[in-house]
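User: I've been going back and forth on whether these two constructs are worth ordering. Before I decide, could you fold them both?

Assistant: Sure. I'll take them in the order you sent them. The first construct and its structure tokens:
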Amino acid sequence: MTGGSSRRWAAVVVNYEAGPLLVDCVRSLLDDTSGGVAPEVVVVDNGSADGSVAALHDLLPAVRVVETGANVGYAGGANRGIALTDTDVVAVCNPDALVEPGAARVILRRFLAEPDLGAVGPAILEPDGTRYPSARQVPSTPTAVGHAVLGRVWPRNRFTRRYRELDADPDRPRDVDWVSGAAVWLRREALDTVDGWDERYFMYVEDVDLCWRLRQAGWRIAYEPGGTVVHVQGASTERHPYRMIVAHHRSLLRFAARRWRGWRRVLLAPASVFLGLRAAASVAARAVDPRAGRRG
């Protein structure tokens, strides 16, 4: 690796009102010295008003914080943070992700040994130890519709199993279509070939889009269970659940518009109607049951 920094990797944490979880996240990154030294950590704050940045300044004053002054979205925050680092490998993390020691060593070794590797996603666990399906396919249209209709009421249906790759061995590394942006390690050279994250996605699907564009440019995407991250999902987005549901479905339509070419573009109109109805159903379900209506 040939980056200008003496550090082997850097990490960008995109924060929006994560509360005390932000400090925990940054500490977990700094504590992972398995790659040789601790990473450089840059926190990009998207206009938080919950005191999370003040707490970080008090407890970890050496950590660089960039305040955007407004919520520029996850992709926008990631790009701003990445631009302030100069390592060959940079991780982008949610502020509610805890990186377990040893992740850096395993992932950096893979980048060093596999020059066509553009992105690596670790195993992601829920706080109770449940494995989150963070490595997935870019689904075909029938698979996407089947998952959208049946995923919440019948989680083991064949469409959802295929999309989430639930039948794959979660303890074995494998190449995949995309990995979760909750915690993803990226090769800077690969990022540069696709001009970074697409900031037109405010929230959600930006990770699918980034991995899809990397693969289109000839880079591989890998799932590496030798690295582990614990993710308290939705710690920030739960403050605005209905807005996030709408943002998720808008992002799905944006990705469809990017991906579908030729005759498939005639599907955008019915897709817009379908996603609008699904978003409305998710909002209604969320109003009845706060555990419902979350993305999957």
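The second construct, handled the same way:
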Amino acid sequence: IEFYCTLRTIQSLQRCNVAILLIDATDGLTSQDINILQQAIRFGKGVVLAVNKWDLVEKDLNTAEQVTQYIRRKIASLSYIPILFTSALTRHRIHKSIDLAFEVYHNWNRRISTSQLNRFLQELRKTGLLQHRDFKLLYATQNSIQPPGFLFFTNRPDLIKQNYRRYLENRLRKEFNFTGTPIRL
């Protein structure tokens, strides 16, 4: 049964544009949930994480924040994925999850002009955050959507490390609101 469930999940992920991954609030984020998230990102799909059965959790003032921090620690590299607390039984925030999925879909289809990207790089240069002594990022352009992909032109691409790529990705996310969608650099 689990084999066919996994197979159907993968097929659904390949067909969708945005995946709303429902996790059980009483079980927390399981390894199977993390595998599904990683598959969605690998396929380049937008993702919304919905924590369901929120009505069954005993809450105090910081419960939602504590659960959010727990999830963010388990999937630290996917911190751009929005988390929403829902209850299918009481229909709490069900419509909000659909609205959030539409927002992620628009982010997934967002096109940034080359002039905007180059102004963004210029601002990073002014703050000193883009300067590196061994290579220079000359200019950038967006070469795809669904998911958004960006092409950076540099004098030494072999010297750009993974942590610098993550830094650029995070800055692009923050500047142009790519919440919920993977970015290809």
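Notes on the second construct follow. The chain has a mean pLDDT of 89. The radius of gyration is 19 Å.
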